[in-house]
Design brief:
2 copies of one chain form a homodimer. By secondary structure, chain A is mainly α. Chain A has 2 domains: 13-67, Arc Repressor Mutant, subunit A (Orthogonal Bundle); 70-201, Tetracycline Repressor, domain 2 (Orthogonal Bundle). Helices cover 67% and strands 0% of the residues of chain A.
DNA sequence: GGCTAAACGGACCCCGGTCCGGTTTCTATT
DNA sequence: AATAGAAACCGGACCGGGGTCCGTTTAGCC
């Protein structure tokens, strides 16, 4: 059935992606680069699956095989940008990073997340479900806020309280407030700080 | 230039919709009915602009002229369902309607909004921007919560606090919690009550 | 070099959205 | 009441883009 000697590929070791073929990996890179360039030069709307494919010199089918859907592609690009931010939260300088008191960290997190969301608004919107939530970014935020709340001695259903702090930062909500209600970013931020204060003070 | 006697149509009286022609109104009705039937029998996904048009016995262009877009059509249908709910909030029996203490009303509002959102989840999602927000439904909710908060003596940026209470009820958030995180509706509700408590207690 | 599993590509389908020439409704006028 | 004219409406051909499919090619392994 099989030889007594196994090459390294024989044990999947439970790695979810069972290794990607070289050409596949090359194309994935090329596609990400092509998409990024398109976004930078012509905006998110110019990112057509056919455009991206053509620019990367591959067929349309390949884009879908690598990224599942347009949203998936956007999600992948977004993830790249967000990783940087996550690093700043995990190991950057205080007060966003570790080293400052929990409350300072929480407030810094709020401001930072607010700015980042607005900065990537187009991308997040285009990434749909794979955008703010589901993707790594969201789980990470929940985890982090939850941790800070615990650190602050807040008791209760922490995951839900974290959601309460995070959901007002959803693109949809922010978009509405900024573009339709005409609220300033500063005011929104102040509101969020107040919300955090009330939640923390609640014990 | 014009006769000294004016028929009633001569003064627009600032009515936004300058009156709809009879056939147009008839088609609008027919289209709404057709769409509703399609949703009830085959689900939201079966609501194709062409399907709806065919079932209503009109051309595709007509659907777009009446409802602007698919999202617009969904929004129109949704609005219909939501009107009922709004009536219950404004003038229904307590504690949801008037007559109960503000806190009771607020909590009843939370539960009711939660259930309603989940009930119409498909529709709200399909209505996109015209769904939970922008549409009448959203502004109404903000206004109502704001009013109840004022009644409860809460001070601060009331519109933002209202948003803080409303944004955890967005379909996107709820969907994620229920379908991905596997949270029960009751737990989400309890969490919301706790959130309301903290916000009100904050003064 | 030969074999298999995976990747490739582009033709194809479906649906949302646009457009414009023909038709219907409404009002004013006789 | 009949009619003329214009504004509004109608329909369906048309377009672009997301997503699927399958016959063909290629990378990786023996």
């Amino acid at each position: 059935m099989s030889s007594p000697v196994h090459s390294r590929r024989d044990l999947p070791l439970l790695d979810a992606p069972p290794v990607e073929r070289a050409d596949a990996a090359r194309n994935r890179q090329a596609l990400l680069v092509a998409a990024r360039e398109l976004i930078d030069s012509c905006g998110v709307d110019a990112v057509t699956m056919e455009n991206v494919a053509a620019r990367a010199g591959v067929g349309k089918g390949t884009v879908f095989r690598r990224f599942e859907s347009r949203e998936g592609l956007m999600g992948a690009i977004l993830n790249f940008s967000e990783t940087e931010w996550q690093a700043a939260v995990i190991s950057g300088p205080p007060p966003l990073g570790p080293g400052a008191p929990p409350l300072d960290r929480l407030l810094a997190f709020g401001r930072s997340r607010l700015d980042t969301t607005l900065l990537h608004a187009d991308l997040i919107r285009a990434a749909g479900t794979a955008g703010s939530r589901a993707a790594a970014a969201y789980s990470f935020s929940v985890m982090h806020v939850r941790y800070l709340l615990a650190e602050l001695g807040v008791t209760g259903d922490l995951p839900l309280l974290a959601t309460a702090l995070l959901s007002p930062m959803e693109v949809l909500v922010l978009d509405h407030q900024v573009n339709l209600d005409g609220l300033s970013v500063d005011r929104i931020h102040d509101g969020w700080v107040d919300l955090a204060r009330r939640i923390v003070a609640g014990g």
